[in-house]
Every structure is written in C-alpha cells, then in structure tokens.
Design brief:
Layout (H helix, E strand, L loop, with lengths): L2 H4 L4 H6 L10 H10 L4 H10 L4 H9 L4 H8 L8 H11 L4 H13 L3 H13 L7 H14 L4 H8 L5 H19 L4 H19 L7 H15 L15 H18 L2 H5 L4 H14 L1 H12 L10
Helix pairs in contact: 4-5, 4-10, 5-6, 6-7, 7-8, 8-9, 8-12, 9-13, 10-11, 11-17, 12-13, 12-14, 13-14, 14-15, 17-18
Length: about 300
C-alpha cells in the first residue's frame, strides 16, 4: 500500500469487514508457527488466542502450568470449566498482590459456599492497587504471530484490539452475582448495606487505577456499581461514599452511556487514516483507553479534546 493510501480515511469497511470475523490463519499455519518457535510460551499464547482449537491451550497448560498469563487464559476457557477452581487457586498463588486473582478467588469461594473466605478475598481485592489481566502480553504475542503470517499492518492492529481479558470477565461477573445474592438475603439491613457497599467498591475498582486502562473493564465495573447502588438507600449518608448513592448512580449511568459511545469505534474512527488508526491502537495498548481517547478527540477536532475521559 502506498503512503497516499495510508493517509486516506480507512472507512467502515476495513474496520468491520467480514475478514476480521474469520480466523487469521488456518491450523496448518498455526502448527507450523509453533514448530518454528519451539512451542514457546508466547507462541502458544498467540495460538490459543488466534485459534478456537482448545488443543493449543491444553498444550500451554501442560508446558507452562505456572505462568500467570496462561493460567488466566485457562480460567476464562470453557475447555477447563471443570478444573476452573483449581486454576483460580494456582493463579492466586502466583499473583498474591494482583486484585484480579483475589476477585476471581473470592467469587469462586462464594459460589462454593465458603462465604467467610470468599468475602475476605473480595475485601482484599477492593483494597489492592495492582490489576494485571495480562492483556498487553497477549496482544504482543498475537501481533508477533500475525506479522509473521504476513497479515497487513492495519489488520494486525485491529485483530489485537479486542482485549483477550474479556475471557475471564464472565467469572468476575459471576462473583458479583454471588455477592448480590448474599446482600439480598442478608439477615439485617445493616448487613445488606455492608455487602452492597463492598459491591460498589469492587465495581469502582474496575473503573479506577490500572483496571480502567481497558474500556471493557470499565463497562463491567459500571455494571457492578449500578447493581449495588440500586440496593442501597438512595439518600444514604456514608463515609464510604463521596456523595449519596442516588447521585453516584446518576454519574455511573452517564459515564456508561459516554463509554459505550466512545467504544463504538466504527463510527468514531472511520475518517482517520490507516496510520492514525494504528497509532490509536498502539496508544490503547500502551497508555490505556482513557489517555488514548484524549489523542483521538484531538484528531477528531472534538470539544474538550484535552480533557481526560471519565
């Protein structure tokens, strides 16, 4: 593609074409890639993310059972659903300071009826500042493989944009549902308020700090916050909250609507050039979606472009 073509608007066809919904490579190509790279950890991560064949993830589990990136991919895979609790325990041991591990373990313990230890893990998660879902590592592994497959640069970037951490978000939401059930069946209003307050804190964790780098994390966080704010007295005066639950809920609803609009990338970036789209996706991977959106708004000439998205 010439430099002139790269500077033309990419249009919606390239952003949402049928080619992106198809596998980037067939099994023979992926198998050859694994052979060339000695079935390394990164090569197997790429294979697991680029192929629906569960054999690649099973091989990764056998070769690298102590790697946290692979552990998290396994937790999010239906192919390991019967062994999920075991792999969550492994992930927690390898990542004791990672809030993602405490969130997953807390939800899993609640689902198994271990309320005391489950709540302890969720409280720990709400207090931890580190939130590592290994999305950056997964994107880099995919990118290396796609480049070697000869995929065009723009398509490489577009295929690495859907953060693979979405695979384990279902388990995080199941944990929130278990906590919600506990709050709904609490033995007293005070206990219900305490559990709902914890739920709000967990949702807030997903929308702040390291977790908010990914838009999908923020969507999940807003959903959890909204669920538990609706369980509280709308006029509750609590030192745990900067304002009333009613006011917080209005802000969450507004932030959710804005984020959904922001994440409608086809509509927002169709007028950008290929070089600009590639640069945007690089920014999303390196500095996170909120900071990348400042740059995007500048490119689109939007009002308030220099303001950090909420």
């Amino acid at each position: 593609m010439s430099d002139g073509d790269k500077n033309r608007p990419v249009g919606k066809r390239l952003l949402s074409g049928d080619h992106l919904s198809q596998p980037a490579a067939d099994e023979a190509t992926i198998t050859a890639y694994l052979e060339r790279h000695g079935h390394s950890k990164d090569a197997l991560v790429a294979a697991a993310l680029l192929s629906p064949n569960p054999a690649h993830l099973r091989e990764a589990a056998e070769r690298y059972p102590d790697d946290p990136n692979i552990q998290l991919l396994i937790i999010g895979s239906d192919a390991f659903s019967e062994d999920r609790s075991e792999w969550i325990e492994r992930f927690k041991k390898s990542q004791p300071d990672n809030a993602v591990a405490a969130l997953l373990l807390g939800g899993d313990l609640l689902a198994r009826g271990d309320v005391e230890n489950g709540l302890a893990e969720l409280r720990l998660a709400a207090s931890q500042t580190t939130h590592d879902d290994f999305a950056a590592e997964g994107a880099l592994a995919m990118q290396s493989a796609l480049i070697e497959f000869g995929i065009p640069p723009l398509e490489v970037k577009l295929r690495t944009l859907p953060v693979h951490a979405i695979r384990h978000l279902q388990q995080l939401q199941e944990g929130a549902k278990s906590l919600q059930t506990l709050a709904e069946t609490a033995s007293s209003p005070e206990e219900k308020t305490e559990l709902a307050t914890l739920g709000v804190a967990l949702g807030n964790h997903m929308t702040q700090g390291e977790a908010n780098r990914a838009g999908i994390n923020r969507l999940v966080g807003y959903s959890i916050e909204s669920r538990f704010l609706n369980m509280l007295d709308p006029d509750l005066d609590s030192p745990s909250f900067p304002e009333s639950p009613a006011a917080m809920l209005r802000e969450v609803e507004a932030d959710t609507a804005q984020l959904k609009a922001d994440l409608n990338l086809d509509a927002r970036i169709a007028d950008l050039s290929e070089q600009q789209v590639i640069h945007l996706i690089d920014r999303i991977h390196t500095v996170g979606q909120p900071e990348a959106w400042i740059w995007l708004r500048e490119q689109l000439g939007e009002a308030g472009a220099g303001e950090r998205p909420q």
